Amino acid sequence: MLQIISLLVENKPGALLRVTGLLSARGYNIESLTVARTLDPTLSRMTILVDVDPVLRKQLIKQMNKLINVLQVSDLTETPAVARELLLLRVRAPLGESRTAILKEAEIFGARVIDSSAEGFALEATGDTEKIEEFIDVMRSYGEIEVTRSGAVAVSLDPKKLRLSSPVPAAVSADRQGPEVPLHTNNGVRNG
Amino acid sequence: MSNLTSGAKILLECLAREGVDCFFGYPGGVTLPFYDALYDHPIRHVLVRHEQNACFAASGYARATGRVGVCCATSGPGATNLITALVDALMDSIPVVALTGQVPTKLIGSDAFQEADTFGITRSCTKHNFLVKTVADLPKAIHEAFYIASTGRPGPVLVDIPKDVFQAQGHYAPVSSIHLPGYKVHMDGHAGQVRRAAQMIWEAERPFVYAGGGIIASSASEELRQLVELVDAPAVCTLMGLGGLPASHPNFISMPGMHGSYAANMGMSNADLLIALGVRFDDRVTGRLAAFAPHAKVIHVDIDPAEIGKNRVADLPIVGDLKRVLTRLHRNLAELAPASQPRNDSARRAWWRQIRDWQHEHPLAPEFSSTEIKPQHLMAEIDRLAAGGAVVTADVGQHQMWAAQFIRFNEPRLWINSGGLGAMGFGLPAAIGAQFARPDKLVFAILGDGGFQMSVPELATIASYGLPIKIVVMNNGFLGMVRQWQELFFNNRLCAVTLDCFPDAEKLAAAYGFRGRTIELPLDLPAALQEAVNEPGPYLLNVKVSPYENVYPMVPAGGAINEMVLGPPQPVPVAAAHRSGDAAS
Hints:
The structure holds 2 protein chains of 2 kinds.
Chain A: E1 3-10, H1 15-25, E2 30-37, E3 43-50, H2 54-66, E4 70-75, E5 81-92, H3 98-108, E6 112-116, E7 120-127, H4 129-140, E8 145-156, E9 168-169, H5 173-176
Chain B: E1 5-6, H1 7-17, E2 22-25, H2 32-38, E3 44-47, H3 51-65, E4 69-73, H4 77-80, H5 83-91, E5 96-102, H6 118-121, E6 128-131, H7 138-150, E7 156-162, H8 163-167, E8 169-170, E9 177-178, H9 191-203, E10 207-211, H10 213-217, H11 221-231, E11 235-237, H12 262-270, E12 273-277, H13 283-286, E13 297-302, E14 316-319, H14 322-340, H15 345-361, H16 375-386, E15 391-394, H17 398-406, E16 415-416, H18 427-437, E17 443-448, H19 449-455, H20 458-464, E18 470-475, H21 480-489, H22 505-512, E19 515-519, H23 525-534, E20 539-544
Parallel strand pairs in B: 2-3, 2-4, 4-5, 5-7, 6-7, 10-11, 10-12, 12-13, 13-14, 15-16, 15-17, 17-18, 18-20, 19-20
Antiparallel strand pairs in B: 1-8
């Protein structure tokens, strides 16, 4: 079964790669991944669908939490959450009677027509993965189709408190680093 | 507001404010503006002979002091040469900041001369990395790099700086605070968990302390000693933790694991409580994980939450800085002591008797011969001269294990080796870093004849800075550890392990302008080592040892650690027959 991991990450170059790198380094394939900015434009929300053994998923999430650019990681696999994806589908339907049937079918699935031509239709549907796949199957029976799927976006139904680190004084490094060994001086050596 | 100045000078100002007194590097095309600024700057630059060794030296500096080690390389090949040493620092949690030059920002992605995607390549080799695109971002990136490298679980951080950023004019605005909202460092362990740990420790009949590199990283040696003494528990230090508890301490039971002592591994295997402090249950310690410490509950203290439960489920996890957690734990233990101590007194005494029996049954004892120098004998002699207080760096292989077994360290930060990555070529450049960090200390670099030949270029660095490093090559004419495995597990079909050409040590050292000597008789060993130590400058001592010696005890890969092979000629599997009490059956 696929699992859903939702992350809040800093909207910075390389942040996406750091997260996906943890999966690829362990040889795991990403089923789907979406990323877009949040209300705060400095942050992005990522939704990743993976198929990973539960023990390893726990470990992966801990590793993701360690990434400097990652503010929060939520495992939505076993918590109340809603996941939806968007489907764009083109179906070939030259003028004829199948066109009416296609539109009826689309209506049943709540899909919208976004383009119509003598060649066929472009349709837009949203729903959970199961529903989207059913719709694709149905449309396939009417003729040649082409699909683009967004991958799932998910939202947790349990609000989770965002814990962030507060700023720390940029202290003299000696405060942070081991005090055991005193700095030795350069004895006036010059590099030039 | 300060006057306009170059990015290169801003970088030097940042380094000075971070307390950097010296760093290790190798210049190149895009770092020219930086080296020009360095020309009249007081921070000392140490010119090594290969970028990998700049980073290993920085690591040696960091390991010897606990301060951030700094290295610098140019773009492209300079940066890619750092990779092995960065991964080494990552695996051993060593605070290193690597500065790399990059081609000018407008050329990035154009396959410019000496361009490499350093930011991309080093992402998985570092704790974090930065690509600085403007001079305004430079101070923040540098100070954040030092902060990230040295806090939490330490590690390497790389800052990639394009040439035009070095050249651009900007202001050094002092960075007053560091704000990394997603960087979570848990310092104080959960108070309730620590209290429960104290209870578990007093209730245990066969407690055993398993201390690792975290003790060194957290400067928690004193706290470890106090803990061990208060509860009178036996303690082992892992390869990364040696010196964390003085080797001379009566509770210290040597090193556990694949080449650990019999008592250490039997102790782990029969304990009913494992107090795991700053360790990661590495496969070289645990052997077959399913059979590791089967009777023990585990208290696991680590600053990195991702280590908890990674390999072994912790019955009581505590995430925090060891120094703080152990201080709190000690307080809780002391509070609980009067009520708890007497209850299992007899069980504790029996446990110690058992441990001492194991120590006497199969002690780690050096071997001697009158005709050839045994490697263990060599290490015992170095131990005598080091007297628990010299810095000893090792390379990787058999000599590293023998050094860990037979050289006793009474302080932290004296034993410096590549533990997690096992990177050959580490020992000599690490000794360079350590000697710069600790000019007051006697520094031994113990190398195999394989690792030495990976590091030969650095003899020039040692000579040109007159570093009085005592280079001791344990020369068995083989890639010994690989040969040992081929002998034991591949029907002695020795393939590509013979190192039949080794330079004349005396001539080689002389070529660099210092003294060297080759010995092969046990009789010559003490005097030759003494001569090396007495020499005011560097010394290269090539010690020919018995070539077919194997490291024992040994836990074969995939074996349980209580199934050690204790030695030749007939491998004797030791069944878990030695038990302490019925609970261990």
